[in-house]
Design a protein that fits this description.
Layout (H helix, E strand, L loop, with lengths): L1 H14 L1 E3 L4 E3 L6 E3 L4 H17 L4 E15 L2 E16 L11 E15 L6 E6 L1
Antiparallel strand pairs: 1-2, 3-4, 4-5, 5-6, 6-7
Length: 132
């Protein structure tokens, strides 16, 4: 259900008319449109991307989202997100089932570029990441 809500919110935000410099500019379907990095929609997509990264990372501990720097979306036959975010390694081990919100953060931080694609024929999004 959350997937469909996220996709609907993205579609609506991409199709809305946004104020420009003294004029009204229309956001283009099929083009990349900026999103508010602090919006609930972007935060949910970023969290999903970090969770996926965390599970695949060669680290004994979980990673958690620290901050989203920028986000944009493109609506085609799927909804594509580009998100630039800072993530941090927690002190919680992947061998434990924990609430990440309660995990103490370690010192390591990474800058990551995430590409997240929600396709209508897939239950889970496809996530690509590049962190440094």
């Amino acid at each position: 259900m959350a997937l469909w809500v996220t996709m609907l919110l993205t579609l609506l935000s991409v199709c809305q008319i946004a104020p420009g410099e003294g004029a009204v500019e229309e956001k283009k379907m099929g083009g990349w449109n900026p999103l508010d990095p602090e919006s609930q929609q972007v935060q949910e997509v970023a969290k999903e991307a970090v969770d996926r990264f965390s599970m695949k990372a060669n680290s004994p501990n979980y990673f958690r989202l620290v901050h989203v720097t920028s986000a944009s979306a493109q609506v085609t036959n799927a909804i594509h997100y580009k998100i630039i975010a800072t993530i941090g390694e927690t002190k919680c081990s992947k061998s434990e089932h924990v609430d990440l919100k309660k995990c103490e953060m370690g010192k390591e931080r990474k800058q990551c570029d995430f590409e997240v694609t929600y396709s209508l024929n897939s239950v889970k999004p496809q996530v690509k990441s590049r962190c440094r």
